[in-house]
Amino acid sequence: MIFFRKYLTLFLLVFFCSLISSYILFSKVYLDNKQLVNSSDRLPTISPLLSSSIVPDEKIDSEIVLVFAGDAMFDRHIRLFAEKNGYEYILEDFSDLFSSADEVILNLEGPITENKSVSVGSEVGSTRNFIFTFDPSIIQFFKKWNVTTVNLGNNHIQNFGEKGVESTYAFLRTEEIAAFGDVGTNPVEHRRYIVREIRDKQIAFVSYNEFVPNSKVHVFEDINKVKEEADIVIVYSHWGAEYLPTANETIQKLAHEFIDSGADLVIGGHPHVTQQKEEYKGKMIYYSLGNFVFDQYFSKETMQGLVVRVTIAKDSNMFFEEIPVKMEKDGKTVIQEN
Fold it and tell me: Which of 96, 113, 240, 268 has the largest CB neighbor count within 10 A?
């Protein structure tokens, strides 16, 4: 009996020691895992829609949000859809995205005039089919949807000649919508570049228009001039071959030269399809955002585009979010689901 009690006491002692050791080990693992979870909560979220930089979370002190969209054409079938349903119908998917930005910038692929459309009802592929003019009522829509700035440096701005260019500037001024672009003429009010003050930063938008003589000379003159007064220099380019998925070596070399000269970001358009992006010397180049509003429903590639949301932090670092968009055959442009 004494022998049994002795071994029972020893067994209970070993058991309780093991229990205490297990409890200590479990507590350590639990605390370590809890600390790891809490640490991961502090890491920035990485979105699948990112370029080389990550989108900052709410803890990063950012001050400026710019939204860039591609080629926007509001004539032909788009005009008819808008007349039937209103312009809000065309871009209703973008109300929240645009309203949350400090600036929304797009390429306005044609003039704003009171002239009657010549492209509506024209034969596909005919000369008239590529002559655009946009109804002046689009101005109120731009204002309501927070489209603050438009690039006019493209191959359609002169579709109604000098009077069409003058009319476009006049209508944009009525709602204080900024415009820039190398349009091939040089009246005082036709600005090849503009500098916008946004939350105490000077943001310059410079145009390169391949379809204007001497635009290559102009863009380098403008970059060199404006970089002395601006915190950020952005070149919006209209260039390249239509419908090709990759910008050629000549275009790539030119984009690199823009950055070497002082540009901080290059945004491209005109090919009507999205093209490659590139990080060069720490700066981003989007060779083509593709279409944003267009009735080119003949291929999957022309019915898709890219919107880029750029967040500029206080130290001028840029973060990029890429938002794929799709043009529906009912005239609407919608944000594509992941």
Answer: 268
**Using an 8 Å Cβ cutoff, are 123 and 78 in contact?**
no
Residue 324 token pair: 């794929």
User: Are residues 259 and 281 in contact, defined by beta-carbon separation less than 8 angstroms?
Assistant: yes
Residue where the block lists tokens 């260019």 = 165
Q: How far apart are CA 48 and CA 45, in angstroms?
A: 10
Q: What is the CATH number of the domain that holds 75?
A: 3.60.21.10
Note the pLDDT tens digit of each residue in 31-49.
333 332 232 222 222 233 3
CB atoms within 10 A of CB 154: 26
Nearest 5 degrees, angle CA 66-CA 100-CA 330?
A: 90
The verdict on residue 327 lying in a domain is yes
**CA Rg, the chain, in Å?**
28
pLDDT in tens, 281-294: 999 999 999 999 99
Cα angle: 323, vertex 268, 281; to 5 degrees: 90
